Amino acid sequence: MSTDPVNWRGVAVRTVTVVACLVVLLVLVAPGELGVLTPLAFLRIPIDALLAIGLMVVLAPRARRIAAWTLGITFGLLAVVKIISLGFSMALDRSFDPVYDWPFLEAGVDFLAQSSGRAAAIGAVIGALLLTAAVVTLVALAFVRTTRLAVRHRPMTIRVLVAGALAWVVCLVAAVQLVPNVPVASRDYFDRLARVNTSLRDREAFNAASAVDAFAGTPNDQLLTALRGKDMALVFIESYGRVALDDPSMGPQIRALLDDGSDRLRAAGFGSRSGFLTSPTAGGGSWLAHATMLSGLWVNNQQRYRQLLAGDRLTLTAAFQKASWRTVAVMPGTNQQWPEGGQFFGYDRIYTATDLGYHGPRFSFSSMPDQFTLAAFQRSEEAGTAHSPLMAMIPLTSSHGPWNPVPPLVDWNTIGDGSAFQEVKGAGAQDAMLGSDRVNADYERAIAYSLQSLVSYVEKYGDENLVLVFLGDHQPSTAVTGTKASRDVPITIVARDPAVLERVSGWGWTDGLRPGPQAPVWRMDTFRDRFLTAFG
């Protein structure tokens, strides 16, 4: 029996080397989307690693050191992008686009500041920067150590590289996948570069689409002729997605609520029709959905949004403005000036959160309850007689995640400055597990509140001139929908004048506030042209 002492230093060195190799391998084979993050998804052959190590083997020592650190830092940045992409897939159900998606990170910080406080947002930013530096450094060090091992055992390395390359080619040709949409022949680094190139070319594609506008030259007196004298309200309900109707746990309650709302509005003399639209976004990015709905263009990233604002596209709101409607935007989620609202979208007046005069308690992310937003709109615009006709765009934010707490409904006559709203006792942080009963229940209550507020508003203030179109901006996050859900959102038109609903009779929409399962599904960018055609 040997009594030689264990060389713990040698064991530690070999352990660190093995861990370094595993870190590099993990970075290059790990999926960047939550929906495919399973153990089998890591069983892949990364051509990126094979080529990188092969390059290290053939380079001279000085060039090798420079290349090792350069590639190591690059792979570290790839790791950061993959981590961000996992977060994106959890919130927005898609991977991160490093060209266009940086504004979403700023929006995420703003969301955290509004829902958890400024200190939490600052702490999150500092933590994210430190984590980024740590990840890049760790991966770079791991790659440098891996290259040293490869060079030290050059003959064995070459044999492993040749065998790995042959296996990669076989898996590529045979399209081997142990997990759907995750090829065993991995090339994540090159795929990311290709995606960047595709994103950069998207500018030309959007410019080409923007150049086609069937209504650009329509005379003002021919726009929206069938709505003369009507007051139009376009209301976006935050995160009101198809999952609210179809999910087995919440669907029965929301469908019953919509059916009850249909009956109540019918008793008040209003008819309604409902269908579905496919949003360009999910989980967040409401402004992209708003822009898509109003412009008739598919605005699914921030670059397209900026391009849109730099052009002269006729928006739905600008069409109302040209046709002599007073146009207003009621923006409870906007805390600063929004010059693009008047310059591009065509609003005569923009009410930001500070303009609405709310002095009640805050409910999670939303700066004010939906019922107050609608009451403030009524008080500021609809109560007067000089406004007619009026077109208003109103995003409702009470159903913005996190969906706890939910405001109570109060008597419209007691709303005042919002002091009638009381803090909800016992509201706590929410469990963000995918599909958890608590998250679904909180989401259901929030959507129910927004819908009830809107139905109650129409009952209280609606008249024969009101035409209301309300819809979801996008589906909620994957915490509610799970991964790979549709991007469909319900849309409804409400009016007391039967001639208005007759204009959309050819759309095939379902009678009532609840679209049936067979109701047509259109892309959101098609609505502008359909609406202008139906009422022009």
UniProtKB/TrEMBL annotation:
User: Which keywords does UniProt give here?
Assistant: Membrane, Transmembrane, Transmembrane helix
Which Pfam family, any one of them, does this sequence belong to?
A: Sulfatase
Q: Which SUPFAM superfamilies match?
A: Alkaline phosphatase-like (SSF53649)
Transmembrane stretches, start-end: 12-30, 36-59, 66-92, 119-144, 156-179
Q: Which domain of life is it from?
A: Bacteria
- Domain Sulfatase N-terminal residues, every copy: 274-478
Spell out the InterPro entries in the cross-references.
Alkaline_phosphatase_core_sf, Sulfatase_N
Q: Which Gene3D superfamilies match?
A: Alkaline Phosphatase, subunit A
Q: What is this protein called?
A: Sulfatase N-terminal domain-containing protein
- What is the source species? Rhizocola hellebori
Organism classification = Bacteria, Bacillati, Actinomycetota, Actinomycetes, Micromonosporales
